[in-house]
Amino acid sequence: MDRLPCGIYFENYKQDMAVVQTRARWTLTILFLMLLFCVPFFASERILSIMNNMAIVLIAVHGLNILTGACGQISLGQSAFMAVGAYTSAFLVGECGMSFWIGLGCGGLFAGIIGLFFGLPSLRVKGFYLILVTLAAQFILVGFLPYQLVDITGGAVGLDAPEPELLGLTIGTEKSFYFLIVGLAVLLSFAVKNLLRTRLGRAFIAIRDNDLAASVMGISLYRYKLLAFFLGCMYAGIAGSLFAHYTGHVDAGFFTLDDSIFYIGIIIVGGLSSTAGAIMGTVFLCLLNELTMEMAPLIGEAIPLFSRSALASLSLIIPGLIIILFLIFEPRGLYHRWLIIKAYFQFWPYAH
């Protein structure tokens, strides 16, 4: 596509709605993906570990972005649905001897089905009351069931999750896990991007903006709200399954309410209902967490007034302050700011 003096010129809606719109952007996208998958060949184990955990968080955040960002159904139970996927996959693969890929698929599917059950109240309640329903899911699925279904979950001890295999090769190193986890994160990010551009995605957005108007237009609130819960929880289940096999163990203590709140903060910082915003928010807050943990000892030496418990809480305090600042000064997130910057350079020197 040629660049004209007024910017980028499109001749039809298909060109305007394309995910990657110009040859230059296609080139940058391909170069970025090549660089992304070359990282394991020159990065340290520490960096690969950070990126693997970041990719798992991103998959869970994509699910929350479908449910909360696109459809407007606020959820504080995303971490609990990750636990469902993690326990399901660990049990099927570790105890039943099934393939990792079957465990991964069943983990996502079972988490989606459980999500349907907790999504049923969304047909009658919303806002604060829906938050309480999803909060109940967090307590029931993580705080109660693992200690009642001991034969399946292992109780307080938890379950061991074996290393996955692909084409007869065992995936057990940071480098091999990187290709698996980041590869799935890229594919699922592309799937979410396209989902939000379909009729289903537009129905979700209509419900989020005004569910009464959406109902008048013929959109089935019953069908689409439950679909949003299923898809959002299915992504969480896939993330939980990957997390289980990556860490090698599943325990209820891994899936806390703090994590669910953290995922909400990510989509606020990145930008609601935006795939790129979910990526930006995940990278920003996860790296901020890592930087905070690295800087905590230095802060303790520089400011002796801080106690050890206060320094340990910095990883919660600083992201919380960042979320508050974004809500005040940039409520539409990093992605909105990126669009403004991109438009400025796209129309330079005539940008206003």
Description:
By secondary structure, the protein is mainly α. It has one domain: ABC transporter involved in vitamin B12 uptake, BtuC (Orthogonal Bundle). The protein has 16 helices and six strands. The strands form three sheets. Strands 1-2 form a two-stranded antiparallel sheet. A two-stranded antiparallel ribbon has the order 3-6. It has a two-stranded antiparallel ribbon with strand order 4-5. Helix 3 crosses helix 12 and helix 13 packs across helix 16. The protein is globular and about 60 Å long. The N terminus is likely disordered.
Protein topology:
Layout: E1 3-4, E2 7-8, H1 13-16, H2 23-36, H3 45-70, H4 78-95, H5 100-119, H6 128-148, H7 150-153, E3 159-160, E4 165-166, E5 169-170, H8 174-195, H9 199-209, H10 211-216, H11 221-247, E6 249-250, H12 257-270, H13 275-302, H14 308-312, H15 314-329, H16 333-346
Antiparallel strand pairs: 1-2, 3-6, 4-5
